[in-house]
Amino acid sequence: MVLYLIISVITIIITAIMLYQRWWTSNIPPGPKPRFLLGNIHELKPHWTHSFSEWSQTYGPIISVWFGTQLSVVVSNADLARQVLKDNDHQLCNRERVAKMTQSGTDLVWSDYNPHYVKLRKLCTLELFSLKSIESFRSLREMEARSMVESVYKDVMIDSTDDQTRKPVVVRKYLAAVVLNTISKLMIGKQFSDEEGKEFKEIVHKEHFLSGSGSLLDVIWWLKWVSKWLVSDKDFLAHMDRRTKWFRGAIMVEEDVAVEDHEGFVRKLLVLKEKKELSEETVHGLIWNMFTAGSDTTAVVLEWAMAEMIRYPTVQEKAQQELDAVVGSERLMTESDIPKLPYLQCVVKEALRLHPSTPTMLPHKASETVWLGGYKVPKGTTVYVHVKEIGRDPVNWINPEEFRPERFLLEDTDVKGRDFRVLPFGSGRRVCPAAQLSMNLMALVMGNLLQCFSEIPGLLCVMKTPVEALASPRAATRVIPLNMG
């Protein structure tokens, strides 16, 4: 009797699970056939967004991809992006947190959409990203751009007197430095030392590696909790210890330093921490968000823009002609010149269209079941918006693979979340709050480089390695050398 009861209960449970799975997966978007427990992860390429693109060509602009037992839905056209980020924004604005660095969700980037997130976003917007705040820090950005130009000039001229002996410069080094210095002065009132900056870059590089090197243990639910008992993640623990040490040394200075002795945005956060309005974990997470998200995204797009202008020299020539006509050769371009430089603004927009720093945006998560493109997206599904694919959709763009800034002169296209054909900063409740600041900084840095230097034959442009360019000071520009004495 007892055995019969046990068998009956097990049968009922298994049947219920099978019926639930059949209902849960019915009417979901098409996609590659998953394997039992593995899903589609055995088919993913190292750059898994490439797999998304290929599967979208086969199955359509909305596809289902299984990471182990976790269903993910990927959308790849503007209409579906609108459905995710506008029509169903409220149900899809939470975050899917997989990588261990993101699982607490107490920061701004990885928090679910809740009162805590709204509070952090409002704080960041008022203190850093409002139009008033952006304007108040304008001189700081212009000073950093000027310093960058001086550094490039010094390095290209130091051991050479002509273009034949001039050594190429690694573009990334200068772009990363100007962005990081700008953010550090906003956040802590000073720039990092060379050693602190080098350590920061190494930590961020390691963090990206750890976040992108997930295994079966990360995506298969029954192995995830087993791994906690069987596996000791020494790499992760060592990384977090290294990150904490750098953070305390470079940003928080000393534990017993008074709040009044801190500067920048950090001071505001520490005041809120003392008032018990923010936890220490939230303060650390928010500061780390600002440094990593801001420095990486802006520098990456700038490097791609410079690389594209090497491939398309006529674009560089047009931008420099505009700078010569509007700014002249007696002074460096400033942010107040940007509204009068429409072609330069188009170069920035085109770089953002072709090379968004996060090709699929950060993952959203369905807080309830919704319908997208006529398909069911069950509660708990991870949703990706493939913005890189959308920005290259031939339905919306003529010759989409070509770097052609002129396309934005023909039509005033918003790139900050209102036009769903180009979404480098996302849209809706999770749109990047720093979009305007980022665009101003990109235009300023790019304009200063174009105003003062031009490329000459002998360029290496392979994006698997840093872009190297033979930079030559422009004869028409008399603003350099600046303060080289």
Description:
Belongs to the cytochrome P450 family. Keywords: Heme, Iron, Membrane, Metal-binding, Monooxygenase, Oxidoreductase, Transmembrane, Transmembrane helix. It holds the Pfam family p450. It is a single-pass membrane protein. This is Cytochrome P450. The protein has 485 residues and is of the alpha+beta class. It has a domain at 130-190 and 263-356 and 391-473: Cytochrome p450. It contains 18 helices and eleven strands. It has helices at residues 2-25, 48-59, 78-87, 115-129, 131-136, 138-157, 171-188, 194-211, 216-219, 221-230, 234-250, 264-274, 280-311, 313-326, 342-354, 387-390, 407-410, 435-452; strands spanning 62-67, 70-75, 94-95, 169-170, 364-365, 370-372, 375-377, 382-385, 453-455, 468-469, 471-473. The longest helix has 32 residues, at 280-311. The chain is globular. The N and C termini lie far apart (96 Å). Mean pLDDT is 84; it is low at 457-463.
Strand content: 5-15%
User: What is the CATH C-level name of the domain at 130-190 and 263-356 and 391-473?
Assistant: Mainly Alpha
Tell me roughly what share of residues is in helical segments: 40-55%
**By CATH's scheme, which homologous superfamily of the domain at 130-190 and 263-356 and 391-473 applies?**
Cytochrome P450
Count the helices. How many?
A: 18
Q: What would the average pLDDT be, to the nearest integer?
A: 84
The residue ranges in which pLDDT falls below 50 over 5 or more consecutive positions are: 457-463
> Which structural class do the helices and strands define?
alpha+beta
CATH topology of the domain at 130-190 and 263-356 and 391-473: Cytochrome p450
Sum up the overall morphology in one term. globular
Gyration radius over CA: 25 Å
